[in-house]
Amino acid sequence: MQFSIARENLLEALQKVVGVIERRQTLPILSNVLLRVKDGRLTLIGTDLEIELIATTEISGQNGETTVAARKLLDICRLLPTGTVIHSELKEEKSLEIKAGRSRFSLVTLPSDNFPEFSLGEVTAEVQLSGEALKKLLAKTLYAMAQQDVRYYLNGLLLEMEGQAIRAVASDGHRLAWCEQNLAEPVATIAQPILPRKGVQELFRLLDGEETISIQLSSNNIRVELPAVIFFCKLIDGRYPDYRRVFPQDIHRILICNRQELKDAVSRVSILSNEQFKGIRLEAGSNILKLSAHNPDQEEAEEELEVNFQGEPFHAGYNASYLGDALAHIDSEEVRLSFADQTFSCLIEDPEDPSVRFIVMPMRL
Asked: Which residues of the chain are under the pLDDT cut of 70?
């Protein structure tokens, strides 16, 4: 195997796949990237057994394949001068010799036969949407995913496909983020795959542009075909809770105010809240919203905002960080907060964008 490639082309392809490759692995070959030359194209594959990334680029060379240390190859490419042409050749299946200008490197290789590659299996669902739509789905919801929760299905993101809609839902049990986008073609059957946290973050990193993206599902894998890279990921084996039951049904208290003013007030008042629980009290009535907090050191903070409030006066406690996160993902100048009659769960909506909703559950203060 041998090939020649511009330094920028190899670096771009490597940067797309190296994010999933850990420096220290129980299996040495998982620290390597698979290099495959076939029919004038170089394919690079990286995996951690949960996620697989495949990038391709055009080259000139002879067919063959091997694996080399991904991070070392990346560092070599990154530190070579701009505009350099890299010549690589596999020597006796033991090492990859790299020549670039006056530099020469020899990297130890491992046989590609032992490299684990994903197989999608039988496709159960397939959809197409723009990269911009998929990026919005992830951007508005991924922050609400749980971390190391015993309810393993909450440590990921639900990507629900139903009819002509695709929805992203994330929750850690205390808050929920929901976003919906339209599909060009309706799906034949309802699909509810749960993507693991690392997979969601890696896919979000790769999304760039408005090109059409193809998503294929099998019983336990998802395949996302992007313009310059193919993303494979194992799905979380489980059933996501019925998130629709969380949305408040009987709403008779609605508050509308300036989003930035409310976000700033929440941040200021939370300074003197309990550092562990970050609880603040909201008290609404007569078009005034009063925010207050106190801590074990007998310190207190209060702030009042002029708002448009409809309904009976009420008060309830909420986590300031959860409120701030939700408000940060609203794009309009104003925000609408609706409160359930019994539980006082807070539904946060963008008045100008019905495709985004957030819920923050109340807490005892």
From this structure: none
Its pTM surpasses 0.85: yes
Q: Around 313, how many Cα atoms within 13 Å sit in the side-chain half-sphere? A: 7
List C-alpha distances in Å: 233 to 46, 67, 72, 202, 218: 12, 21, 25, 10, 11
Instruction: Calculate the CA dihedral of residues 22, 23, 28, 32 and round it to 10 degrees.
Output: 70
Q: Which residues lie closer than 8 Å to 61 by C-beta, 6 or more apart?
A: 1, 2, 3, 4, 37, 40, 42, 88
The tokens describing 44, both together, are 């690079």
pLDDT on residue 50: 94
CATH 3.10.150.10, the chain: domain bounds: 2-114, 125-243, 247-360
Name residue 157's beta-bridge partners. Answer: 195
- CATH homologous superfamily of 247-360: DNA Polymerase III, subunit A, domain 2 (3.10.150.10)
**113-146 as b/e: b if 16+ CB within 10 A:** eebeebeeeeeebebebebebbbbbbebbbbbbb
pLDDT for res 14 = 96
R_g of the chain computed on alpha carbons: 25
CATH of 2-114, one of 3.90.650.10, 3.10.150.10, 3.40.50.300, 3.40.718.10: 3.10.150.10
Burial class (CB in 10 A: 0-12, 13-18, 19+), 99: middle
The pair of structure tokens assigned to 174 is: 């205390």
- The architecture that CATH gives domain 125-243 is Roll (3.10)
